[in-house]
Amino acid sequence: MEKQTAPQENRMGTEPIRPLLFKMAIPMMLSMMVQALYNVVDSIFVARLSEDALTAVSLGFPMQNLMISFSVGLGVGINALLSRSLGEKNRKMVDESARQGLFLELCAAALFILAGIFLVPAFMRSQIGEAHIIADGITYLRIVTCICPFVFTAVFFERMLQSTGKTHLSMIGQMAGAVTNIILDPIMIFGLLGLPKMGVAGAAAATVIGQAVSALTAGLLHFRRNREIRLTLRGFRPEGRVIGTILSVGIPSIIMGAIGSVMTYCMNRILGVFTKTAIAVFGAYFKLQSFIFMPVFGLNNAMVPILAYNYGARRPDRMRETIKTAMIYAVSIMFAGFLLMQLFPGFFLGLFKASPEMLTIGKTALRTISFSFLLAGYCIICGSTFQALGKGTYSMFVSIARQLVVLIPAAWLLSRTGVLSAVWWAFPIAELMSCAISTFFFMKVRREIILPLEQE
User: What is the pTM of this model?
Assistant: First the structure.
């Protein structure tokens, strides 16, 4: 019988935390920034078609975001189990986690293909009554949902690379897709280089082609460079125990993303009562804020495997330092974002060819909503800590409370004043509540998980 050798100690268990987190986070943060860039570029080019085209894409965002939430949420569950198994030196569980994780990602992709075929028209009609906006929204959404397997496989292979600390390779996969999208956007939207002008359909086509390039690149890098995880489908069958472990962390993450989609959908309906321009402003804000949040999410993606690995390795000192360092970085990034939104809102809105009405509404919106950034960095790192330590339900509860229990009701109540500018204050109000609940759960995790490890 062939004797299996134990995996060598991963750098997540040996290198000093600050340089390790920095080295792992920078590639992810750069790739996330490129992701944010192509999201913004996508909308900038669409806005050049018309404000109505931007509105159509904005109305389709909740379903598109839901799809991304499923892929990334499952990826969080896969990443957490892989990193913990690597820390425990459990080779069998490492390989099985990868197999079951790929199966789950493909199952989720199949669900969204069905949604793209059957649900998209009703979804668009439920938000607005203007036929040409509905038609553009249906065109855009059908393409990105019915050709969605690439985004799920791209996320899967990126998470495989991240779980073993190869974040620079994950970055290459993400950036390959993002750069492809950025290059193809103007070509396919406006019909350059001899291609027909496709409008919003071109924006959607550029997106899925970019996702395909990302999936192919990340997959090749995994099979050639990621020796710590062996992915084979020979003799595969679903394993309930492994799937359940992945879903125990992944489902809360999915729900958190889904809640974001519900929030966006409800906000579109609330804002549409005032003017469709408010919907375009909200869509532009979501693209712009990704420049601020994406680097923090990149930091989060670096922090989770480090924290999970050292949890599996029973190293509370490294766990504590990881959380502290990530918190400092995240809060600093969000404060910088707050300053940018306060000082240059007109410049950012001008990227979307904003009309005078859109500028008036948008400057107030960006300055008001950005007050929530001052607390958001802290809350994101708390949520990442819960996920890495197997307490993803805490993150889910915080997200539900923030976006459904507080934000949407507050926005609706403030809309009853008849003053559009009042609605934007629902975001800082909700973030304040999120900070309080996150602190409560963080102290609970510290008391029940981290302190007992320190006493061993």
Answer: 0.80
Q: What is the dihedral of CA 170, 174, 176, 182, to 10 degrees?
A: -160
Give alpha helix (H) positions in 164-236. 167-190, 200-225
pLDDT in tens, 336-352: 999 999 999 999 999 88
Residue 212 in any domain: the answer is yes
Give the pLDDT of residue 8: 53
Taking the CA atoms of 49, 50, 56 and 59 in sequence, report the sign of the dihedral they define. Answer: positive
Look up the domain containing 20 and give its range.
Answer: 15-454
What value does the mean pLDDT take over residues 222-249? 87
Asked if 373 and 341 count as a contact pair (C-beta separation under 8 A), the reply is yes
Evaluate the CA torsion angle 211, 282, 267, 370 in order and state its sign: positive
Q: Which amino acid is at 429?
A: I
Angle between helices 91-118 and 51-87 (to 10 degrees): 160
Tell me how far apart the 2 most distant CA atoms of the chain are, in Å: 76
Classify residue 4: in a domain, yes or no: no
Return the top range by mean pLDDT from 86-100, 139-153, 296-310, 383-397: 139-153
Q: Above 80 in pLDDT, residue 34?
A: no
Nearest to 47 by CA among 186, 152, 176: 186
Residue 5 pLDDT: 44
- Yes or no: say if 281 and 365 are a contact pair by the CB < 8 Å rule: yes
Nearest-CA neighbor of 102 among 157, 148, 65?
157
Q: Please, what is the end-to-end C-alpha distance for the chain in angstroms?
A: 37
Q: How many domains does the chain have?
A: 1
Amino acid type, 29: M
Q: Residue 3: inside a domain, yes or no?
A: no
Residue 163 lies in a domain: yes
Q: What is the DSSP letter of 407?
A: I
Place of tokens 């090749």: 220
Distance of alpha carbon 30 from alpha carbon 25, whole angstroms: 8
- The DSSP secondary structure of 251-313, one letter per residue, reads HHHHHHHHHHHHHHHHHHHHHHTT-HHHHHHHHHHHHHHHHHHHHHHHHHHHHHHHHHHHHHT
Chain-centre distance for alpha carbon 244: 22
Q: Which two tokens stand for residue 197?
A: 């002008």
Task: Tell me: pLDDT of 96 over 80.
Answer: yes
Tokens matching residue 49: 């078609």
DSSP assigned state of 447: I
